[in-house]
Amino acid sequence: MKTILVPTDFSTNAANAINYAAGIAVSTNSKLILMHAIEPDVVEFPGNPFIRRTDNRLVAYYQDKLQNLAKYIRLRFDSNLEVETICVPGPFLKPLNDLVYSKQVDLVVMGTKGAHDWLDKIFGTNTASFIKQAVSPVLAIPSGVQLKFIKTIAYASNFESQETMYLKQLVKFAEPLGSSIAIFNIKSENQLDLVSDQQILRKIKRDFPENNFSFSQIKENDIIAGIETFVRENQIDILALSVYEPDMLERIFHNSVSEQLVYRSQIPLLALPSKPYSVKKTTKSKQQKSQETH
């Protein structure tokens, strides 16, 4: 893990996510990027709305706020921490994946806030929307959660799909932190085994021979109750999920279990995308190659 991106709207929840991300950056010797997007000013005219050009003075104002925030982070966490600031015009979510590609971001950290929809109640409108379209892992930090030693990360698996791609992302996140990974599965009485559980486990062990994962299976018809039980009994620090089908998150964060969500909202969630981008390997310039041969 080399680069962590944190979008901010300068809210309390965003500040909390920045502090969490800064702690991870220091622990993993990663670069931190702070990004703020200036929402376009839409001027309504009858039958002809248009977007007003962003005032350069406004860009300068927010860039100055980001610079001051970067100074504060270095002062609080580590004077040697590399912090880059970026201020861009446009909708909040639009530049995120572009920055993931251009800056070769390994992790996006976002704060959460309340809203009205199923997933939004936990992660906030922007975070929920970005998780669905992200090309890198997204760590959602609930309001008030502070960074501590991340001892155990739980990965909720369905033991039916291809897990290698998701576990590669999870291992890349967990190893620099020294965190263990607990893979668990919630199985209902009526669930059909399209693929043998033992077959999935053998493949995971074969693909990750150096990783000492723990494996658990919980018999529970209610997936929410099963997750809650596992998180509580095993003192999980982060819950990881694969974002491979839209209704998976909706099943987990359904409104009917709002009381349980109050508990889970205190646990950061790591969303692993189904189609993560590939980091481009930097190539040496002709000048560098020439210098090396002399």
From TrEMBL:
Instruction: Tell me one Pfam family matched here.
Output: Usp
Superkingdom is Bacteria
* Residues in UspA domain copies: 1-142
Q: Give the record's family classification.
A: Belongs to the universal stress protein A family.
Q: What is this protein called?
A: Universal stress protein
Upper classification of the source organism reads: Bacteria, Pseudomonadati, Bacteroidota, Cytophagia, Cytophagales
